Amino acid sequence: MTNNLYILFLNLGGGEVVLVLFVILLLFGGKGIPNIAKALGKGIREFKDATDGLQKDIKESTGGITQQIQEHIQEVKKEIDKE
Questions:
Q1: Where are the domains of the chain?
Q2: What is the CA radius of gyration of the chain?
Q3: Residue of 48, 16, 46, 21 whose CA lies nearest to 33
């Protein structure tokens, strides 16, 4: 858990984090913070969806190559077994 907090707050100490949160509260007010959190969550979700889409596209485009490699491996195994 400590390691995650270290990465999350980019090596900020406890006092510095409180100060940053206080400044955010002053700038955006109590009503603005939920909107900021909602927008941040939406952005993270869109980024995750985009990366998932890219991974899916890569898997689909390499699917034929994987199939060909598996077929060649089976052919080689059959020839080895014949000998």
A1: 2-82
A2: 25
A3: 21
**Cβ–Cβ < 8 Å for 33, 24:** yes
Assigned token pair, 54: 């890219």
Quick check: pTM over 0.70? no
Length of the chain, please? Answer: 83
List, for residues 18-52, the tens digit of each pLDDT value: 888 888 888 888 888 888 889 989 999 999 999 99
Number of H helices, E strands in the chain: 2, 0
CA count, 13 A, side-chain hemisphere, 4: 1
Q: Which residues contact 33 (CB under 8 A, 6 or more apart)?
A: 24, 25
pLDDT in tens, 3-13: 555 455 567 77
The residue with tokens 């000998």 is 83
Gap between the Cα atoms of 69 and 75, Å rounded: 10
